[in-house]
Amino acid sequence: SDTLKNILEQRQKDRVVADEKQKEIEEKSESDFQSLLDPTLVTEAIAGKRRYALINVWRNIQHDPVYRSPLACVDARTMPWSDLRTFQIHYADRVGENYFVCPS
Questions:
Q1: Count of CB atoms within 10 A of residue 80's CB?
Q2: How far apart (Å, rounded) are the C-alpha atoms in residues 99 and 104?
Q3: Burial of 44 (C-beta count, 10 Å sphere; 0-12/13-18/19+)
Q4: What pLDDT digit, counting tens, does each position of 5-62 carry?
Q5: The organism sits in which domain of life (predicted)?
Q6: Please, are residues 66 and 78 in contact by the beta-carbon 8 Å criterion?
């Protein structure tokens, strides 16, 4: 029907706009991120001479507090290893490793 066709066309337009906006955000984030880094540290990390971590930090966009899957930042030196659980992430070309933190 025409109504369904209009809905699908609008969804496609919305998706294109969202994709363009996301691309703008990613490009800006990348350039902002690069400007914060010491080129020597980047070169050493790429060469495998230095360890690094990328950490995504999100803020709540709603007024209500986050009760499920809250995000916290802590200094790793302040936590016992017994509070961490390792899990693997399987990619097409490698296996990565990450951690969950147990409630304490």
A1: 8
A2: 15
A3: middle
A4: 777 777 777 776 666 766 776 666 666 666 667 788 778 877 888 777 666 666 677 7
A5: Eukaryota
A6: no
CA distance 23 to 43: 26
Provide the total of helices (H) and of strands (E) in the chain, helices listed first.
Answer: 2, 2
Nearest Cα neighbor of 88 from 102, 100, 72 is: 100
| Residue recorded with tokens 């961490």 | 84
Total residues belonging to the chain = 104
Task: Tell which residue, 102, 16, 98, 104, has the closest CA to residue 56.
Answer: 98
Q: Going by C-beta distance under 8 Å and a sequence separation of 6 or more, which residues neighbour residue 45?
A: 51, 52
Amino acid at the residue 77: R
**Which residue type sits at 23?**
K
CA distances from 35 to 9, 46, 93 (A): 39, 17, 29
Residues 46, 59: contact at Cβ < 8 Å? no
